[in-house]
Amino acid sequence: MEGLKKSFGRQIIWEDVTFTIPAGQISALLGPSGTGKSVFLKNLIGLLRPDRGHVWVDGVDVPELHERRLHDLRRRFGVLFQDGALFGSMSVYDNVAFPLREHTKLKEHRVREITMSKMELVGLLGAENKLPGEISGGMRKRAGLARALVLDPEILLVDEPDSGLDPVRTSYLNQLFADINAETGATILIVTHDIGTARVLPDNLGLLFRRGLVAFGPREMMLTSRDPAVTQFFNARREGPIGMAEEKDAAALGLEDAGWHATAKPAPIPPQIMPSSGRPRPFQQRPGRWLQAHGLQAPPGSFIDDEGRDWLVDWDRLTRR
Ligand SMILES: Nc1ncnc2c1ncn2[C@@H]1O[C@H](COP(=O)(O)OP(=O)(O)O)[C@@H](O)[C@H]1O
Ligand SMILES: [Mg+2]
To answer: What is the pTM of this model?
Structure first.
């Protein structure tokens, strides 16, 4: 993304957005609601056009593409929209199979094999014949995810996959993303406001706020950042520039300011989710690596999991080869 700006009429959603989503890694984009996260995803795949700026995918500038080339490019993307965006009059099965029928010439029995395997992956076997209106919101989300996965995308974009899911399903889903990245090397961008997910899953984190990208960088950088908005958001604190109504006014901030610096210490960094195989993902970094490279200490208690294992010390033993 380079110098990206999007507005609707006179409302600027964000501008000067410049950053690179590292290929083959898992990244997450966060921000208070209404900051234009969904709009951002739509700009990436050419469903919306930015006012200015570039979206480079392998040297191709997406906003410049015409319908035909856009259609070809989208074949490489899997997208889960915030609302699932299923066709209401089609069965769940037909919804999931849709991209295969649209983009490939596969025989129906192959379509069936792939569709059923992705439905199994997201835990939807048995719901094939239901209509989207007959299943729960969480199931619609998972159906949308199965559909995003059927073409084995190089780039997977998911908009709030975890909203409306219970914590157990959310951890299954996070495990699934770690496994997909480990197995296929897909570049994954997750839009979420679940801080739990943001702290344990991605390799990189970004924060949209106040009509721009506040910061984007490696997980350890963002989780130890002293930027007030970043610290507040990733530690779910009340103190900071983000308020109930999006932004706090100067008076409210002034009142907090005195206490702010005392509480600005980042919380311990949790260990990252490992693929089910137990082997690190291709681009997964050893815990503490970024901090060490920058001469920084991890906050006390970092990289210790629920069972008390210290991933910083025991990385080689815990990631059996
Ligand atoms: N097609 C559209 N036309 C006009 N305004 C829009 C459109 N889509 C989104 N918006 C506005 O853009 C802002 C950002 O929306 P959205 O990307 O959905 O936020 P988020 O996903 O971060 O919660 C909102 O104020 C929303 O009303
Ligand atoms: Mg949204």
So the answer is: 0.91
